[in-house]
Amino acid sequence: MGAGHASGGLSARYLAGTSPVHRLEPHVKLVAVLGFALVVVATPVHAGWAPAAYLGFLLPLLVVARIARVGLGRLIRGLTVELPFVLFAVLLVFVSRGPRTEVLGLSVSQSGLAVGGGLLAKATLSVLAATLLAATTEPRALLRGLERLRLPEVLVQILMFMIRYADVVGGELRRMRMARESRGFRARHLGALRVLGPAAGSLFIRSYERGERVHLAMLSRGYTGRLPTGPVAAVGARSWTTALSLPLAAGAVLLTGSLVG
Amino acid sequence: MHVPDGFLDPATSAATAAVAAAGIAVALRGARRELDERTAPMAGLTAAFVFAVQMMNFPVGAGTSGHLIGGALTAVLVGPWTAVLCMTVVLLVQAVVFADGGLTALGTNVTLMALVSVAVGYGVFRALAAVLPRTRIGALVAAGVGAFLSVPAAALVFVGLFGVGGVADVAIGTVALTMGGVHLLIGLGEAAITAAVLSAVLAVRPDLVRGARHLRRDVTLAPRPPAAAPVAVRDAA
User: Fold this and answer.
1) CB A173 to CB B56 under 8 A?
2) Which of B45, B169, B170 to mutate to test the interface with A (most CBs of A within 10 A)?
3) Is residue A226 a part of any domain in this protein?
């Protein structure tokens, strides 16, 4: 399609490769990442051993990243999505109740400090795991994975159309932006809405009309509201044990923490 | 502002996931009424539009720029049920393809940004559209106010959830005030963008704006001229 390499392209997060992590079945990976996130979420933030556990969770993630050949820079760039919640965590530090302490001359809540830090650590770990998933699995493979995990069929179809056409619609948006900018337009203040509003509006009209054309084209090819799916290959126990070693390792860390700490 | 993993305790996350699943099930049925058998392609393309337009940066003054969240706009354009599905799909893609919003918090995010923001945005829009003059300006004002309120409403529901299932011991009033205040500002941007986009679509293809169907007047067919006497064609010569 040629439009997918802009920063917003759907495949922007995917790193092509043939590592064992890449080769795992997508639904197995989805379950593994979800399991990992569940273990991370279940860690009590107030426990004294929690910081050690966060480090313990980080270790298997880094091992997986190493096997998948996903660089550290890529992982760190993936973290930018949690920036708004960094602000929220900072807010917590100031508004939490309980005994207060001084940090850099500011009065902050002790429990807020622990909780805010804990929340950030948990969010960071889960984002890292999800970044690894996205970097080693193509969007379409992720869709197949969700399908095998029994997502409702209509939702799978909507997702499929969205994934197929996101780059097309995004490409139209990019071309409109180029056309605007090549005519000297720069969005500086609110008045730019008079230009950007119609741009987004016509993008909607084009998307909607494209949807109608796609639907008619599919009808003429015998679409009855269902899509044929290929044969489903059985997944061996080896894939499952390989993939589940990540949440199991995290679970072991959690168990050790709650027994020892 | 997608909620990441770990902000709410597992019980609250599970409860919001159940709410989200129920909401999606109802929306799937409702969308069939809005779009009949065209549901999948039309909702898919609309979701692609929402996804693309969320990446567009709009300057909203004072050197800052914001982007559209789009719940209210989508609901006014294609109807609330389809909008819920579109927002859900966008959130799902953002969670699994972009690691934006935690997997365990997906139910929370769907509840906040697909269910609450669409319900509030569309509800306010319908309520206002019923009392405001039935003109283009009336529809734009109704949609703008709906979009404006949908943002702080979602933020306040999040604060409520945080109060119930958050792990921090906080004065919930302070958090509500701060989050509400910040999101009122974000809501202003959302309202301006929603009205601008809607106004553009209304100007070009008013028939595509589902929420403004009451504005559309049926075209009166021009009567066929009475069988007139054959027009004499004068010879050019």
Assistant:
1) yes
2) B45
3) no
Domain residue limits at A189: 152-219
What integer best gives the mean pLDDT of chain B? 85
Judged by average pLDDT, the poorest of A66-70, A175-179, B172-176, B193-197 is B172-176
Contacts of A213 (CB under 8 A, 6+ apart): none
Stated pTM of the model? 0.87
Instruction: Measure the CA–CA gap between B81 and B130, rounded to whole angstroms.
Output: 20
Inter-chain contact A126–B102, Cβ cutoff 8 Å?
yes
Find the largest Cα–Cα distance for chain A: 71
Give me the architecture of the B10-215 domain, per CATH: Orthogonal Bundle (1.10)
User: Does A243 lie in the same domain as A131?
Assistant: yes
CA distance A227 to chain B (A): 11
Q: What is the dihedral of CA B34, B40, B46, B48, to 10 degrees?
A: 170
Tell me which of A106 and A162 has the higher pLDDT.
Answer: A162
Average pLDDT over residues A93-107: 69
Q: How far apart are the first and last CA of chain B?
A: 77
Tokens standing for residue B86:
């579109």
H/E element, A178: helix A153-182
Interface test with A, best of B16, B103, B151 (most A CBs within 10 A): B103
> Cβ of B38 and A78 within 8 Å?
no
CA distance A122 to chain B (A): 6
The single residue listed with the structure tokens 């819920």 is B84
Please, what is the average pLDDT of chain A? Answer: 84
Domain borders along chain B are 10-215
Task: Tell me which chain A residues have a C-beta less than 8 angstroms from the C-beta of B49.
Answer: 169, 203-204, 207-208
Inter-chain CB proximity B89 and A159 less than 8 Å:
yes
Rounded mean pLDDT of B12-32?
91
pLDDT of residue B47: 93
Is the pLDDT confidence value at B229 over 70? no
Q: Which of A217, A232, A58 is nearest to A129 (CA)?
A: A58
In a domain, A242, yes or no: yes
Give the pLDDT mean for A157-172.
90
User: What pLDDT sits at residue A1?
Assistant: 36
Q: What is the pLDDT of residue B128?
A: 94
> Do A124 and A163 belong to one domain?
no
Closest chain B residue to A135, measured at CA: B97
Q: How close B175 gets to chain A, by Cα (Å)?
A: 7
Between residues B171 and A213, the one the model is more confident about: A213
